[in-house]
Automatic annotation (TrEMBL):
GO terms for molecular function: protein methylesterase activity. This is protein phosphatase methylesterase-1. Its EC number is 3.1.1.89. Pfam families: Abhydrolase_6. PANTHER family: PROTEIN PHOSPHATASE METHYLESTERASE 1, PROTEIN PHOSPHATASE METHYLESTERASE-1 RELATED. It is an enzyme of class 3 (hydrolase). Belongs to the AB hydrolase superfamily.
């Protein structure tokens, strides 16, 4: 958590990442907003009775529980931000018309079409990852060398929280047991584009490459139903690879859509004139 005023920017990380995935971006975001980045179950420092129940219902329920605990029945303006698997979760949360104060939706590098197409390769990708590390530093090094992250500063902050120590093997390994959650993968992404498009709040899709839009999103984009930004020179984890640019995009989105108690002013950014209903 960071920041003391402005709207709440509630961030959900992707599968295998953790809440600290947003740490570097938060240092800039907190000047204008309140940042919350929770660890999803089975990830980071979270503790649950079933770490491999990553069903969409359970994940949405966890988000609602955290929001309720933090804000009770009168939550402030909330912008939901989700990366990859977390992007699917925020879209499902928004589709449940909750929280009532939802003011914006930010989805980071996940599109139904390409996500569904990649599922058949997912177990192989997971099994090909390096599994054991003698120290957290080795895992940080591997994350950058393998290309999963491109920013060593962010990796140093986030990667240690994605590990756990394996006493039997006397080494570190991945905390998230994603390979045991395959039964839930399809439900994360099925119908995602339509759910995203049908959400009535302002929406932005941040992509690391242009070839990702499926048919529904392409049509929706042509109709102006959401804003899309292609972020150059970054890998899948946009918020980690280019945290300053990511934070600026979010702050501009919040300012442009006047989200928060009075909206927020960003010097040099002209606001569009209010259109009459």
């Amino acid at each position: 958590m960071a920041g003391t005023e402005g709207p709440v920017v509630f961030c959900l990380h992707g599968g295998g990442y953790c809440g600290l995935s947003f740490a570097l971006a938060a240092s800039k975001l907190k000047e204008k907003a309140r940042i919350v980045a929770m660890d999803l179950r089975g990830h980071g420092k979270s503790a649950t009775q079933n770490d491999v129940d990553l069903s969409i219902e359970t994940l949405c329920g966890d988000v609602f529980s955290v929001l309720k605990t933090m804000y009770g029945d009168a939550p402030p303006a909330i912008v939901l931000v989700g990366h990859s698997m977390g992007g699917a979760v925020v879209v499902h949360v928004a589709a449940k018309k909750s929280p009532p104060s939802l003011a914006g939706l930010v989805v980071v590098d996940v599109v139904e079409g390409s996500a569904m197409a990649s599922l058949i390769h997912m177990q192989k990708i997971l099994s090909n990852r390096m599994q054991h590390f003698s120290t957290p530093e080795k895992a940080i090094e591997w994350s950058v060398k393998s290309g999963s992250l491109r920013n060593i500063d962010s990796a140093r902050v986030s990667i240690p929280n994605t590990l756990k120590y394996d006493e039997s093997k006397k080494c570190y390994t991945h905390r998230a047991r994603l390979e045991e959650t395959e039964q839930y993968w399809r439900e994360w992404y099925e119908g995602l584009s339509e759910k995203f498009l049908s959400s009535p709040v302002p929406k932005i899709l941040l992509l690391a490459g242009t070839d990702r839009l499926d048919r529904a999103l392409t049509i929706g984009q042509m109709q102006g139903k959401f804003q899309m930004v292609v972020v150059r020179h970054t890998g899948h984890a946009i918020q980690e690879d280019v945290p300053d640019e990511f934070a600026t995009l979010l702050l501009n989105f919040i300012s442009h859509n006047r989200i928060g108690p009075h909206g927020i002013e960003i010097p040099g950014l002209r606001r569009p004139p209010q259109s009459k209903p």
